[in-house]
């Protein structure tokens, strides 16, 4: 097909890995040589297997970072011999780190030649999946139709059995994930906005109480020559300092949660300088916005009535 750049067959299974006195059960992935550039699995250490090794069904294996850490800790695993389901395999590379998703660790796997997996290890006579890379994203739909028709033709599948296989378009999956991410972003943004509103109202109430309790102080300052702008500035500064301190606490708390998720849950988290700056600016903005009304109320007080206030 003219729309396709690369194709890689794939089979999957699970196996018990043994190296010395260490054991680890993991996912086994049998693939072709084009799988590495297609799925960004170019090894960070070592190399991928070759066409000759694939054709000869050689016992070569590439380890995910989780498997490498469990079996070798900080040692170099290249050229080491490990057992997979009691069969010796030579380690030729370590795969790049992919991270963990909600349902599985993407680095908890090993990759071997698909021919070796089918005929020497898993005993499968059929492929579980075929990965196809299209030349251009604009040809995705056309390629999907062509692949569908080719599978039906080659396997002589009747119309009643067309549901016996499934074609997954990664572009559509990515669009779905992007849409879900945007929805979650708006949802979290709405929750944050409501939290800011509630917090701002709380700040305003605190400042109004402060104005009431310090009425005589305000009257005394005005009697000594303080202008309205001086009174407003004083209470605005107090409001901003209050929200700024809350923002600092929030930044420290959020950074701590991100560190805990990264350390104990294995999530890839990052607290950027831009997010810290944004949180600080919002804190100051909330202080000015919700502190303005109490500051104006304080500035409008009559000094004589304020001095008489009990």
Structural category: alpha+beta
Ends apart, CA distance between termini: 90 Å
Largest sheet: 6 strands, mixed, barrel
Overall average pLDDT: 83
What's the β-strand tally? 8
Total of helices: 10
Strand content: 15-25%
- Using only CA atoms, what is the Rg? 32 Å
How does the overall form come out from the CA principal axes?
A: elongated
Task: Please outline the helices and strands.
Elements: E1 4-19, E2 22-31, H1 35-38, E3 45-46, H2 51-55, E4 60-63, H3 65-72, E5 81-84, E6 87-94, E7 109-113, H4 114-121, E8 129-134, H5 140-155, H6 170-213, H7 215-223, H8 228-265, H9 273-299, H10 303-308
Outline the structure in words:
The chain is an alpha+beta fold and 310 residues long. It has helices at 35-38, 51-55, 65-72, 114-121, 140-155, 170-213, 215-223, 228-265, 273-299, 303-308; strands at 4-19, 22-31, 45-46, 60-63, 81-84, 87-94, 109-113, 129-134. Strands 1-2-7-4-6-5 form a 6-stranded mixed beta barrel. A hairpin with a 2-residue loop joins strand 1 (4-19) and strand 2 (22-31). The protein starts with a strand and ends with a helix.
